[in-house]
Amino acid sequence: MKIRLIIAALLFGVTLNAQVTHGTLKGKIVNEEQASIPAAKVVLEGQGVTLRMLADMDGAFKFSALTPGLYTLKSWAMGTDTTAISSIQIKPDNISMLGSVELRLSTLMGKMFELVHTEPLVSSEPSKIQIGIGDIKHSGNIQNPKELFASMNSDIIIPEGSSEMIIRGSRPGDVIYYVDGVKSDDLNGVPGVGIGSMMGYTGGVPAKYGDTTGGVVILETKSYFDLYYAWKAR
């Protein structure tokens, strides 16, 4: 008799467990323009559990095997405030579609962005000097490429009695010269009438020109066609 009662109790418990089915919650995380937010953090709390996950690359999320009852969902991403939705009803053996969960830009992050975009004390952009053929043609220093270049910027000096160009207090000999793309020791061998353009950097020198703190001067000579057209224009 006792064995029968035990078997009956076990069967009754199995029947009750079989009747407790679980639910599913699905949704999508979007911004204020309704565009999906990939990898947003999503937290679901309720029925004694806390579940966490990241939305996929389309902003979608899915919680499965949920005990029926009420839940609260929270979500946030970098630069947004936390959005919370409470009293989400999970029904047994049912997929609950939450739809789009909208995250709004954080007011705190907005203030931080204002600080980030203040003008820097020191510019990270290269200090570039560009001299066109018009400036070269009308310069009184056309016969001396170094003097011509130095006259365009107060950061460049050529000490009296010296032919060395000094940029922003660099040591004599630190300036690197390029003539038609070829590294050169000097510029004095280039006649003024042969200069097509000049360009240089007094700071933030691009890596392709080598390691120097003295600046770079790049001179391009006139091509055959430049000289031909200049002769034709006489």
Describe this structure in words.
- It is a single chain.
- The chain is of the alpha+beta class.
- The protein folds into two domains: 21-107, Immunoglobulins (Immunoglobulin-like), CATH 2.60.40.10; 127-232, Beta Complex (Ferric Hydroxamate Uptake Protein, Chain A, domain 1), CATH 2.170.130.
- The protein is 21% helix and 35% strand.
- The protein contains five helices and 14 strands.
- It has a five-stranded mixed beta sheet. Strands 3-2-5-6 form a four-stranded antiparallel beta sheet, with no helix packed on it. The protein has a three-stranded mixed beta sheet with strand order 4-1-7, with no helix packed on it.
- The termini are far apart.
- 20% of the residues are buried.
- Mean pLDDT is 77; it is low at 12-18 and 108-125.
Tell me the layout of helices and strands:
Blueprint: H1 2-19, E1 23-30, E2 41-46, E3 49-54, E4 60-66, E5 69-76, E6 83-90, E7 95-102, H2 107-116, E8 127-131, H3 133-137, H4 145-150, E9 156-157, E10 166-167, E11 176-179, E12 182-184, E13 195-203, E14 216-221, H5 224-232
Parallel strand pairs: 1-7, 11-14
Antiparallel strand pairs: 1-4, 2-3, 2-5, 5-6, 8-13, 9-10, 11-12, 13-14
In short:
With about 230 residues, the protein is α+β, with helices and mostly antiparallel strands.
CATH structural architecture of the largest domain: Beta Complex
Largest sheet: 5 strands, mixed
Task: Report the total helices.
Answer: 5
Which stretches are poorly predicted, pLDDT < 50 over at least 5 residues?
A: 12-18, 108-125
CATH class of the largest domain: Mainly Beta
Considering the protein shown, what is the CATH homologous superfamily of the largest domain?
TonB-dependent receptor, plug domain
Tally of domains:
2
| Sequence of secondary-structure elements | HEEEEEEEHEHHEEEEEEH
Summarize model confidence as the mean pLDDT: 77
Rg over CA atoms, rounded to whole Å, is 37 Å
Molecular shape: rod-shaped
**CATH topological fold name of the largest domain:** Ferric Hydroxamate Uptake Protein, Chain A, domain 1
Task: Give the quaternary arrangement of the chains.
Answer: single chain
